[in-house]
Each structure stands twice: as structure tokens, then as C-alpha cells.
Amino acid sequence: MFRKPRASLLALAAVAATLLTSLVAGPAHAAVATPFKNFGNRKCVDVQTESNHWVQLWSCNGQSQQNWTRVLLTNGFWRLISQKNGLCLGVDSVFAGAQTATVSCGNNSDWQITFANNFGTGWHQQLELGSTGLCLDLLNNSSANGTPIQLWWCWTANQEDNPAQLWML
């Protein structure tokens, strides 16, 4: 007498588990490489075509040197991988004023992304290399094409006052 309801409940549980597994696991989706821009001037982070290594600011043009895949690591840091050469946004050596480049993914290419003061002016983020206190920064806050993108001490006051370190991912 109790066997039929148990069997029905077990069958129903099995169907529910199968459906839930397919919803949670779902098909794998490839990460999409997209550009990211400086908040202040809306120009793109670009891998210099001459060197295929150094990173600069450039007018957005939709080409592969401006497309980056964002990968969240298990430790909460992010890697930004260039569609142009498959390398990560990072630096050869860590110091204030170091020019960013595309490098092998590893310790000098893991970024903390924090939302900056986003009240009323749109979404923008500050990118800190690891826990170094050094952030992605436009050299002299210039908006000219070819401006090097460097590491500089993270601006922690009102971030709206330093658009050189504000990015739109």
C-alpha cells in the first residue's frame, strides 16, 4: 500500500533532479571578447599593433587588439585576455609607472575590480593589480591616441576626481 506512493515520489524526485541538473549545468557558453573603455574619454584599451605587446589608449575601432575576454578566477581576481594574441593584460615588472602590456597569464596579470563611485555618472570600475595598491591608469590622464596605459597608485579619495583610473568593463 505504501510502496506505490514511495515509488512515485522517488520517480518524481529523479525527474526533478534531472531537470535541475540540466538547468544548473546547462550548455557551456564560450566567453565573449569585448572592448573596455576609459570612463572619462570613452576610448578603448588597445594592444599596440607595432609591438603586439604594449597596451595603449586608442579610438575604438572594433578590431581584435581592443577585445578582451574577462575571466573570473577562484580567488576573486580577474584576468583580461587579449583576443589579438591570447595573452593577459599585465606588466613585465610591478612598480608605479610600469607600462602595461600583454604578458603570460600569472601573478602580474591578476586584477581586483572594484566599482568606483557610481552615483549619477554611470558604471565604472577601478582595476588594481593584485593587492599592490597600483591601478590601471592613463599616463598624465591624456586622451590622445597612443597614450600609454600604466600602473599608478590607486586613487582612493573621490574616484570621480581621477578619470585616468576609471574604466567601463
How would you explain this protein's 3D organization?
The chain has 169 residues and is an alpha+beta fold. The chain has a single domain (37-168), classed as Trefoil (Acidic Fibroblast Growth Factor, subunit A), CATH 2.80.10. The protein contains 1 helix and 12 strands. Mean pLDDT is 83; it is low at 6-29.
Keywords:
169 residues, alpha+beta, Trefoil (Acidic Fibroblast Growth Factor, subunit A), two-stranded antiparallel sheet, 12 strands, globular
The span between the termini is 61 Å
CATH topology: Trefoil (Acidic Fibroblast Growth Factor, subunit A)
The number of distinct β-strands equals 12
**CATH domain class:** Mainly Beta
Radius of gyration: 22 Å
Strand content: 25-35%
Number of spatially distinct domains? 1
Lateral strand order in the biggest sheet:
1-12
Mean pLDDT: 83
H/E element string? Answer: HEEEEEEEEEEEE
Produce the secondary structure layout.
Elements (H helix, E strand, L loop, with lengths): L2 H23 L11 E2 L5 E4 L7 E4 L9 E5 L5 E5 L5 E4 L8 E4 L7 E5 L9 E5 L4 E5 L10 E5 L13 E2 L1
Antiparallel strand pairs: 1-12, 2-3, 4-5, 6-7, 8-9, 10-11
Short description:
Helix content is 14%, strand content 30%. It is α+β, with helices and mostly antiparallel strands.
